[in-house]
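Suppose you are handed a protein chain with no further information: no name, no annotation, nothing but its sequence. What can you learn? This example shows the usual starting point.
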Amino acid sequence: MTIRLHPLTQVRTWQVLFVQDCNLRCSYCSSGFGTYGIQKGLMEPRAWKDFVSLAVHHAPEEAPVRFEFGGGETFLHYDEFLQAIEYLRDKFNVRHVPVEIHVTTNGTLLNPARLRTLAGMGVSLAFSIDGPPDVHDAKRRTVGGMDSHALAMQNWRRYSKLSRKSPEKPACKVHSVITDASRLRHVLNFWIQEGLTVVETAVQWPRNATRASLTQFKRRQQQYLEDLRQWAFQFAKEHWAEEFLSRYQGSLDLFSLWKKMFFQEISKPCGAGEQIMAVDRKGGLYPCELLMMSGQLKIGDAAEGIFPESYRSFLKEKNKCRVSCKTCVARKCCPGSCMAGVPYQTLQKNFSSGCWFAKELYKIAFRSYKILLQSKHEN
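A reasonable first move is to predict its three-dimensional structure. Written in structure tokens, the prediction is:
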């Protein structure tokens, strides 16, 4: 027996692996270069239609639904992507529900004509660029072994200009992975020189659950925290609380936490499997894209809906992970702990590891924010 989704479920974000393949061979990739363990290729037309039907059925009334295309390199099939989102928008227009289209891309398969078309269609792009050329090209090369930084940067700069001029106002962002070859402070300085103020960064995840891989991961996390701590306290000493919103330069991690503290916002729990769902190119449904890497968390199919037993089992494990959150000092302002983390590791182990990192981020933000407030009174 199968069901579509829980009757009350309203999915606000769909993570779509429209293309499970990639033209780069990043040495740190843990997703099988976008395949996530299945044969590489493009989303099957039948699966796309089934998925759109499911997404429309569970769309919230009037609120926008976000579609995040990623996993592999979507623009390996650029024309098919355009046709797919036209179909998607047509179906959602019938219900008068707006959609937001976001694509994460390595930026190497774009050109001026394609970028103009995407800007005109209001497609938001997030470019995966790991900072300075030497750092980026050390890890992110093409299938043929060529550097990818120069072309990615060229297309990011083009889209930055186009997005600002477009009436549709699509977003143009970057995302940088902090690898063994880089440090957070160097990557932040690079992007600030390029004109960015808030930079989305993440620590390179381990490719497997071996002791050596996990030890290296912990070392990268500690270096990341060290750099973030120095950055946070230096900025806090030089600015007032009232001005950081307009004058901030640095990591999105820190900026997001300071904003929560400034506006007294309460953190929202992980939406995986509830407000967030993911779909692979064959129509398989997962709680989120990152949980595809475990290879064991398929909870449904676009044609048939959710598999009740698999779905209940996931929610049960997710709720177990959340038990410790109830008494945590950081619960109201938590940056979030991810249950995906390390491929083929249990949700609980990943959550515990992520919880430690989230608490360390919170400590840095909380202590530096107190200095930000002191600066306000002293001046």
